[in-house]
Amino acid sequence: MVYDMISCGQFGQQLSELVNNSYGHVAKCIYKESLVQKDLYGKNAIAGFYQFDHLDLSEIKWIHAFGAGVDDYLKQPTIQPDVILTRTLGYMDKRIGEYCLAYILEDLKSVVPTHDNQRSHFWKRTNLNVLYNKKVLILGTGFVGQGIASALYPLIEKIAGINASGISNPAFHQIIAMKDIHRSKLEQYDIVISALPLTPTTTNFLNKSFFALLHDALFMNVGRGKSLVESDLLWALENGHVRKAVLDVYQTEPVPADSPFWDHNAVMMTPHHSGLTTFDDVRKSFEESVDALKNGIRNHLFVDISKGY
To answer: Which of 35, 75, 193, 218 is deepest in the core (most CB within 10 A)?
Structure first.
């Protein structure tokens, strides 16, 4: 089967050229910066970042998403249950792993406070904290979670992962099933990182009930903003469950000007850039998806519509 594909938005033109130059046996592709309904006439495949709220996608057989998160696609009311939905991962696991390592070390080695002292001409030695004896908990053991674990594994005493199934994974010393977290002594973990996808189960999962299980933890969210109840994180900071938060994703983006996060001394905000998509990511994931389609298999880029990831 040769797909009639349309690509759109950022990286869409580059993807169209890649398809027509190298994958004509799989698809033919045209490019539009933005889509209206008439652009989909005769098309059965789409590639791009999400921009389909007001479009009828009922004739679309394959969507290749340019991002790792696909919750917007799954909420689209006309998407068919048998659609092939592939996503872009590329090298995001490595970049997000490096991001987490960087901000963990910034915290432990007092990088920002030391620089602040320099600017104030203030000489102050600090007993710097260490990473090698820390215990890390990563929520989500998929592609991104494994990338974070790989970046930290050689440097950490223990890395545990939380997933829905509880099935073991070689990237982690231990796996905890979500249903077992309330009896898993989460207070032992010094660093807690969320790399959760957004599903009905994980929406608002990072709430007061979860944070109450932690003690004096460094908390990071590089997964999905809507997994976090932001007011409950503030409660956790005030009550000793979380000592510092590093956030890259939020309920609303950009973060509203009146959010208390902006001026909170224990919150470090970054503008959702830990794993920004590059065209190298798009190309790598598209090529891997095409190879899987040709061989009649599903790899880690194929989304299970029923699960949402």
So the answer is: 193
